[in-house]
Amino acid sequence: MRQSPANRILILIKTDGPQLAAAIGDALGISGEAARQQLSKMAEEGLVEPVTVAAAGRGRPRQLWHLTASGNRQFPDGHAELTANLLGTLVEQLGAAALDTVISAREAETLQRYRQELSEAHDLASRIEALAGIRTREGYMADHWQEADRSFMLVENHCPICAAATVCAGFCRSELETFRAVLGADIERSEHILAGARRCAYHIMPR
To answer: What are the Cα distances from residue 58, in Å, to 50, 54, 55, 62, 154?
Structure first.
């Protein structure tokens, strides 16, 4: 299905971070002026906003376009409000131990499923590639690459369970442990959406 220019801009900023209008125009194959007109329309709809940043040296200040909270809500949120309310009720009625049980059960199911899907991936690079594909299908907008020092990066530009993770950090801890187990590697989270970053990023080092 052909995406509208607005949707393409939303995805571009979501995955690559704040953008200059000219860069958005290049990505969409349109002029910078056409991109600015589209951005202005999206700003009126509350989806994006410009932020002026100082340029290095004596250069002129630059205007970078960011997603607003409304813009971010255009992406899957896993029924955020309902999820948060259900988890809050669970803890209130049954206690924190019940939530820990739910998280542990989810972790076990996810680990089993991931291992099955990665069963044909016999080296770390192919396992990371397969995992990124799985996570993208699950709504995390994942990407991956190898660094110059032979380590790897896995990034997730969206979190469809952000509401649940905000209520209970155990979901994030569980996902990190699942990654370590399924990849068989040392992993550190270097960026975290819940800590204010625009994405979650994982630095993966072979054991």
So the answer is: 21, 9, 7, 12, 36
Q: Is the pLDDT of residue 109 over 50?
A: yes
CA distance 177 to 187: 9
- The answer to whether 142 and 132 are in contact (CB under 8 A) is yes
Residues 82, 69: Cα–Cα separation, whole Å: 18
Contact present, 138 and 150 (Cβ < 8 Å):
no
| Strand 48-53 with 19-20, pairing | unpaired
Query: Could you tell me which residue, 45 or 87, shows the higher pLDDT?
Result: 45
Considering the entire predicted model, what is its pTM? 0.71
Quickly count helices (H) and strands (E) in the chain: 9, 7
DSSP run (H or E) holding 7 = helix 5-16
Burial class (CB in 10 A: 0-12, 13-18, 19+), 55: exposed
30, 33, 157, 197 from 26: Cα distances, Å = 6, 11, 21, 26
